[in-house]
């Protein structure tokens, strides 16, 4: 059976995962076309690298819950003990403290997680709800290259290019961006550019706001700033959600580092970490998890209180320990980072549109599947969204080529009602 040529725009966690999902069906020759890839130098333009990337879903809408659950199940399998991909993840106990009352529909989602339990011993008066569960953290610097390698091993191709308008891809495939001639078995994407792809999957992230042919004004950035610390002794996570919406998270990662945050600054495009924000994050995280301090310092060698034993789970939280100077943490900072979460009014866009294959008035239309607008929840929704995009694609292809006429959209938007913290 001849494989169908598909192009995926974007190589963030959504684009990579979607490309894998398509390529591994054995039905398609998939090419990823992107300006930035996981192995490139770190940049504000590649948000997936900076993600907190822990799976902590507060989804309430049924479709979103199903998408997040499918993703968690894939991650849980990949992180299973003895798996070749186990080192890309860290399973751990995570506790969330809230200054507001936990909504019943959110509670139902959380209660499905492993080892979920409510905590009755609240650490201080302003906390109204607390619960813990077993979840996992993904390690983006290792996981993203894994996705790219897995895609290529399955026969996929990657092409670097800066796209001005989606019509470039629809009409000529990767030809306009691939500087070297190419052809592979079963492919119609030859180097003469005479034939475009059978379909396009658009996963441009924040680029959906400016990419010609999409220019989605509903897309906006939510700037997140983080600090990465060395703390190999820490094996649990914590989140604090304050009444005014401020959130603080401490997320352990494989390899002995911990990511702390966070911020959620809407329509803030500033591309580098702000020093005053880093200072604020450090103070909040240290108050939430005093164990961020080096145990060698806390075990009395510098007159600091000893580290308690936590054989039965994370220790009680305290509002900081004044005798421990903040400078003990600053010495362990690996890097400060920031990324622009690609949020969207109304939630994620999962939708099919039919676009003319060329400027010829008689040209047929091909399906373009949109999969973007995940905000801070790209990792949390990645595999489930990829499955949904695949179904939209296959349903569209089953209809056959469409004539160049009006009425080209088939909407499958769904509202993302998900308060997850630091997912992406």
TrEMBL record:
Keywords: FAD, Flavoprotein, Oxidoreductase. GO terms for biological process: D-amino acid catabolic process. InterPro entries: DAO, FAD-dep_OxRdtase. Its cofactor is FAD. The keyword Cell membrane does not apply. FAD binds at residues 47-48. Residues 5-388 form the FAD dependent oxidoreductase domain. GO terms for cellular component: cytoplasm. The keyword ATP-binding does not apply. Gene3D superfamilies: D-Amino Acid Oxidase, subunit A, domain 2, NAD(P)-binding Rossmann-like Domain. Pfam families: DAO (PF01266). Residues 299-324, 399-424 are annotated as: Disordered. PANTHER family: D-AMINO ACID OXIDASE (PTHR11530), D-ASPARTATE OXIDASE (PTHR11530:SF11). This is D-amino-acid oxidase. It comes from Coniophora puteana (strain RWD-64-598) (Brown rot fungus).
């Amino acid at each position: 059976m001849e494989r169908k040529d598909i192009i995926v725009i974007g190589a963030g966690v959504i684009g990579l995962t979607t490309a894998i999902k398509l390529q591994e069906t054995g039905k398609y020759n998939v090419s990823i076309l992107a300006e930035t890839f996981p192995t490139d130098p770190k940049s504000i333009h590649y948000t997936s690298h900076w993600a907190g990337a822990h799976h902590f879903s507060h989804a309430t809408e049924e479709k979103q819950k199903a998408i997040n659950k499918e993703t968690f199940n894939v991650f849980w399998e990949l992180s299973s003990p003895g798996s070749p991909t186990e080192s890309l993840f860290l399973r751990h106990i995570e506790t969330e403290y809230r200054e507001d009352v936990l909504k019943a529909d959110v509670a139902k989602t959380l209660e499905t997680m492993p080892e979920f339990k409510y905590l009755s011993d609240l650490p201080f008066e302003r906390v109204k709800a607390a619960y813990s569960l077993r979840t996992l953290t993904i390690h983006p610097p290792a996981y993203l290259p894994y996705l790219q390698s897995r895609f290529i091993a399955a026969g996929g191709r990657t092409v670097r290019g800066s796209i001005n308008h989606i019509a470039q891809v629809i009409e000529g495939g990767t030809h306009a961006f691939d500087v070297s001639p190419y052809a592979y078995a079963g492919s119609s994407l030859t180097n003469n550019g005479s034939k475009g792809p059978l379909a396009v999957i658009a996963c441009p992230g924040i680029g959906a706001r400016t990419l010609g042919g999409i220019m989605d004004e509903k897309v906006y950035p939510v700037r997140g700033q983080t600090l990465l610390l060395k703390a190999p002794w820490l094996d649990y996570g914590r989140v604090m959600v304050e009444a005014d919406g401020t959130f603080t998270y401490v997320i352990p990662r494989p390899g002995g580092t911990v990511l702390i945050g966070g911020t959620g600054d809407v329509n803030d495009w500033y591309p580098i970490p702000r020093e005053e924000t880093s200072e604020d994050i450090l103070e909040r995280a240290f108050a939430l998890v005093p164990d961020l301090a080096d145990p060698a310092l806390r075990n009395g060698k510098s007159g600091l209180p000893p580290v308690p034993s936590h054989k039965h789970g994370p220790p009680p939280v305290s509002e900081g320990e004044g005798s421990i100077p903040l400078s003990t943490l600053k010495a362990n900072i690996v890097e400060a980072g920031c990324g622009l979460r690609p949020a969207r009014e109304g939630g994620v866009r999962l939708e099919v549109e039919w676009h003319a294959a060329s400027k010829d008035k008689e040209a047929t239309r091909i399906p373009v599947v949109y999969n973007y607008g995940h905000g801070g929840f790209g990792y949390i929704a990645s595999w489930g969204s990829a499955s949904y995009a695949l179904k939209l694609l296959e349903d569209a292809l089953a209809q056959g080529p469409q004539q160049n006429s009006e009425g080209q959209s088939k909407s499958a938007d769904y509202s993302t009602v998900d308060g997850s913290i630091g997912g992406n």
